[in-house]
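Hello,

Our lab assistant flagged a job as stuck in the queue for most of the afternoon. It eventually completed. Since we weren't sure the result was trustworthy after the delay, we are filing this so someone can double-check. Below is the sequence as submitted and the structure that was eventually returned. Let us know if re-running is recommended.
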Amino acid sequence: LGVAGCATPRVLASAAPSAGSFLVASAVDAPFDDCLDPDLPGLPTVAQIHLVDLAGNVSNGSYLQRDAALAELMLSPREGGAWLGLQDEGSATFGIYEVSSEGAFDEPHLQEVGSLPARTHALTSMGPTVAFASLLPSDVQPGGELVLTVVVDFIPTSLAIQPAGSIFPLRGPSLAASSDGRSLLVAFAESDQPTPSVVVWRADCVDQ
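-- returned structure --
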């Protein structure tokens, strides 16, 4: 399908199905660049969207110029497009954007500001809204603190997953929602064990 872009020291990319085609997000050094410039590529400071149809045709969507190199970039499909999650290197802000099926996005739907940069995130649609998991640095427990956040009407509600025994999140997480949008499943690699393993937790919505 061709070159989507380039950057150094890393290129980030993610894809999601949308309206019979695909949205492809990438973090590169310049928007919609063919990388034929003889100069070495720069830092991944641009988040861009391509549209790819089922015939393999590629068209340009929108892009965002960031103030710093991107550390995380992820897409999750939603009705009418996708959610795009972005975090800059060294930043404690995780931004979530609505991306249309045409690849357009502008202001963030939500910016979650933490006291410290999260080590990693995971993002998923949850019915009409969005949920994400954050692995936060912790001085109290090994690995870090795993926090689930569900956004309803632009208001985030967070739940810290309490460790059980000697199970602590080390890497991951991965996140998925049930088809009815009432349950979340989060998986992560756990630490502090002779043989590390994968742990799965489920969180259910409760009517009040």
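-- support follow-up --
The delay was a queue issue, not a problem with the job. The result is valid. Residues 90 and 117 are 6 Å apart (CA to CA). The first strand starts at residue 12 and ends at 18.
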